[in-house]
Each structure stands twice: as C-alpha cells, then as structure tokens.
Write a sequence for this structure.
C-alpha cells in the first residue's frame, strides 16, 4: 500500500491501531443509542461524528509524534514530570468533579476537559526510562533506587490516588515492571514490594474500618465496590451482572447494532464496551481483540530488542505494557474477574483526550521503531 510509504515505524502497530479504531467507531455508534435518547433526542449520529473526529485527530497526533526523534522525549519528560506535580495538585483542589472525584481540568474557552493523570502517567513512564538509562551505574542499592525512582514514582501515584485509585495502582505496577526490565536488582524490587504490601494493608484496613475518616472522599466508593464484588449477588453487582448477560447472550454474536444490554448496562460505550463487542460480534471477536493487544505487547518487546539504545527500548516496552495491561484490566472487569475500576479500553472506548493520549503513547513507540529502521537503512547504504 502506498499509505505505508508515509507511515514509518512498525507497520504491524499501525495496522492494529487501524483495526481497533475501526471497530471502536462501529461499536460506539451502537452503544451510544441510550445515551443519545437521554441527552440528544435520539441523535446517535452526533456521538458518531464526534467520536470519528476524535479518532481522526488521534491518528494525526500519532503521525506527528512518530516523526519526532525519540531521544527528544527524554528531555521533554524531565520537564513534563516536574510540571505534572503542580498539575495533579491543582486537579485535586480545583479540578472538575464527577462522582466525588476531581480528575479533570477544563481548558478555558474550549469547553474541553482532560485528566491530568494521563499526562502524569505518560511523563512518569518516560522519566523512569530516562533515569534507568542515565543512572544505571548508581542504581545498585535500595537507597539510590528510592532516591532516583521510588520517591518520584510514589509522589505521582499518591497525588493520583485520592481521585483515581485504579490508575495510581496500575501506574505503580507499570513502573515496577519497567524497573525490572531496566535492570534493577530483584532483591531491591522485593524489598519495595514488601514495603508496598505493608502500606497497602494499612490503607486497606483504614478504608475498610473507617472510610469516612480517610482523606479521600472516594474511600466509601472503593469499599462499596469491593463489597459488591465479594457478595456476587445481582442487586449489589448490577454493572457486572449486566455485562455477564451481554457476554452470555452474544457467544456467536447478535450482529452489529443489535445489542439489547446497551439499554441496561451503565457506561456501555466506555468502561463496559468490551461486553457490548462480544454481544454484537461474538466471542471470537472478543478473543481477536485480546490477541491484537498481545501482538501490540510483542511488538513493543521486539522494538526493545532491536533498538541499540537502552532508553528507546525501555520507552517502547514501558508504554506498550501500560496500554496492554490497562486493556487487560478493562476486559477482566467486563467478565467479572476484577471489581469495577473505571479503566477504559485503549483505542476502543468512547472518549476524547484519553484516546489522544493513547495515540501519543503509540506515536512515541512508533518513533522508537522508526529510529531503528533509519539505522538499518543507513547500515545498508554504507554496505
């Protein structure tokens, strides 16, 4: 295809992006019917056009980022990480609230909102990759790892946690995986995990026994979600039960636009869109989506292996693992393996800035792979 002459980097990732985005447009158009009747007098085309434009702009953003030399992101992340701290603090104090959680910042005059945690997550992962590269010889004991990595990671996660526990937990886990891949010793990581388990047990006990005294207003919500998940009854676990009905009734697929559970399932176009996909397109399509994310992770590993610069490889595996692990959590919630977390399915769930930040992450991964391709071409020309 002539299109691939303009799209550099890993072609398989471009194909995955296109397939997931195409499926997203089809499923979102079906899933927003109830939302359209509630807010737009049944005009589902409004959400279709909005979502299509969001994805089209996302591809434009990914294209721009994949043309930037990936080494530039090392410098940007250092500044971006520092700026994300006051941004997260501002979100907690003055952010736009929804469901007792201040997660969004509104852009004055544009009417757009974005989650500051998306910026912080992206900057932190690249920052950790930078530190693992530039401070590799110093990261030999717990003290140095705590100073250069654990404190920055902990600070960002603590600032995200009050409004979005699942994002903070996933981000911390992603950073731990990146440290492991980056060569931090196993015994140091084991000590960090032990410390986290102790802190986690204390916080869990606090939330469970006295949620009203916890600094975050979300504590009661966290406790309720755990209780509802553990009970397993239909009344307490309404969202998961509706998702299971959608999956069970769509083993072979009802057909595009023929979902019935979209009328009963809250967040059918975002958090629980995976259940709608299986209901309309069948279980095989659900496995296909899982397979596509696994391929994305494999391509990230391959890019890391083929890149001769540690920073580029760590960025590629860090960002790809972050996207794939978020997708796995979303799918696990849909099939009732995890309590409700509120994590969208990357590139598929309806959203605005969340899609753009996913596209930025993929654009950076493609930039790393493009760098490897350029060097291969230089070697061939030299030969």
């Amino acid at each position: 295809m002539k299109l691939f002459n303009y799209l550099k980097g890993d072609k398989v990732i471009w194909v995955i992006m296109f397939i997931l985005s195409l499926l997203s447009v089809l499923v979102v158009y079906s899933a927003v019917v109830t939302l359209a009747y509630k807010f737009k007098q049944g005009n589902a085309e409004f959400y279709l056009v909005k979502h299509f434009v969001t994805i089209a702009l996302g591809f434009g953003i990914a294209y721009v980022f994949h043309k930037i030399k990936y080494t530039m992101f090392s410098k940007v992340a250092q500044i971006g990480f520092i700026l994300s701290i006051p941004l997260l603090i501002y979100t907690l104090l003055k952010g736009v609230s929804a469901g007792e959680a201040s997660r969004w910042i509104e852009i004055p005059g544009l009417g757009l909102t974005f989650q500051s945690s998306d910026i912080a997550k992206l900057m932190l992962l690249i920052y950790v990759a930078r530190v693992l590269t530039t401070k590799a010889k110093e990261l030999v004991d717990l003290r140095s790892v705590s100073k250069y990595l654990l404190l920055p990671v902990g600070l960002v996660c603590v600032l995200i946690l009050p409004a979005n526990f699942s994002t903070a937990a996933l981000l911390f886990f992603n950073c731990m995986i990146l440290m492991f891949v980056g060569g931090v010793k196993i015994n140091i990581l084991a000590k960090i995990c032990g410390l986290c388990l102790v802190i986690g047990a204390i916080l869990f006990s606090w939330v469970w026994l006295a949620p009203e005294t916890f600094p975050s207003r979300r504590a009661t919500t966290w406790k309720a979600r755990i209780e509802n998940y553990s009970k397993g009854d239909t009344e307490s676990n309404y969202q998961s039960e509706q998702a299971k009905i959608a999956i069970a009734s769509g083993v072979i697929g009802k057909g595009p636009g023929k979902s019935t559970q979209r009328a009963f399932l809250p967040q059918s176009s975002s958090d629980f869109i995976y259940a709608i996909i299986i209901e309309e397109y069948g279980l095989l399509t659900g496995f296909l989506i899982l397979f596509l994310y696994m391929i994305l992770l494999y391509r990230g590993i391959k890019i890391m292996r083929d890149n001769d610069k540690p920073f580029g490889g760590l960025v590629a595996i860090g960002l790809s693992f972050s996207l794939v692990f978020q997708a796995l959590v979303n799918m696990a919630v849909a099939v009732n393996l995890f309590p409700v977390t509120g994590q969208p399915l990357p590139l598929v769930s309806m959203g605005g800035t969340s899609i753009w930040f996913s596209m930025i992450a993929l654009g950076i991964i493609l930039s790393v792979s493009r760098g490897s391709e350029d060097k291969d071409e230089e070697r061939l020309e030299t030969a």
Summary: The chain is about 70% helix and 5% strand.
